[in-house]
């Protein structure tokens, strides 16, 4: 009788060990999968491939519905479109205590000159392109700034308004979940 109990105990111990090993393997696979999904979600908001750039000005951005590969502050698009970086500031726009680069881009498709604000967000000491937010067409005298909470783009629509300092237009932006979003203040 004691031999049968010992055989039964040994069998239970072996089954228990197999179950523990299966649970451990399942936990390891689940942890690995979850960490990979989390990494993918982290970069999901970036509009294009998240190729690492060490210069904040250089990167691929979607501006005016076209993909531009900005190199040293300018890029040519399809047909007659082009972009030029007009203004740029360094600021920690996402609250991670690392300087990001925010810039105003002049986009020309041959007919009209449009302005967009985009950013190069610093992650692990590399810059990643953000989305671009439309500001307005054919604007005069712009001022890009950051007040510690939001990005502000101030501009005028014509020279007389600028001269008289009236009808100033203001666009407020904030970096939320690695994307620029227009906000109301």
> Describe the biggest sheet?
6 strands, antiparallel
Helix share, percent = 25-40%
Overall tally of domains: 2
Radius of gyration: 27 Å
- Report the mean per-residue pLDDT as an integer: 80
Unreliable spans: 38-52
Total DSSP E strands? 12
How would you describe the overall organization of this protein?
The protein has 185 residues and is an alpha+beta fold. The chain has 2 domains: 1-44; 59-183, no CATH class. The chain is built from 2 helices and 12 strands. The strands form 3 sheets. Strands 3, 4, 5, 6, 7 and 8 form a 6-stranded antiparallel beta sheet that branches. A 4-stranded antiparallel beta sheet has the order 9-10-11-12. A two-stranded antiparallel ribbon has the order 1-2. A hairpin with a 4-residue loop joins strand 5 (100-108) and strand 6. The chain is elongated, with a radius of gyration of 27 Å. Mean pLDDT is 80; it is low at 38-52.
């Amino acid at each position: 009788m004691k031999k049968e109990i010992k055989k039964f105990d040994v069998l239970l111990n072996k089954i228990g060990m197999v179950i523990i090993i299966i649970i451990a393997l399942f936990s390891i696979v689940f942890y690995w999968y979850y960490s990979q999904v989390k990494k993918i979600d982290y970069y999901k908001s970036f509009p294009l491939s998240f190729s690492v750039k060490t210069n904040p000005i250089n990167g691929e951005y979607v501006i005016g519905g076209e993909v531009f590969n900005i190199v040293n502050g300018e890029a040519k698009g399809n047909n007659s479109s082009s972009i030029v970086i007009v203004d740029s500031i360094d600021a920690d726009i996402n609250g991670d205590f690392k300087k990001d680069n925010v810039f105003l881009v002049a986009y020309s498709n041959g007919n009209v000159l449009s302005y967009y604000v985009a950013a190069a967000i610093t992650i692990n000491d590399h810059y990643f392109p953000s989305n671009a937010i439309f500001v307005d067409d054919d604007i005069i005298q712009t001022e890009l700034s950051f007040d510690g909470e939001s990005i502000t783009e101030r501009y005028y629509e014509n020279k007389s308004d600028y001269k008289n300092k009236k009808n100033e237009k203001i666009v407020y932006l904030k970096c939320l979940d690695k994307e620029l979003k227009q906000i109301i203040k």
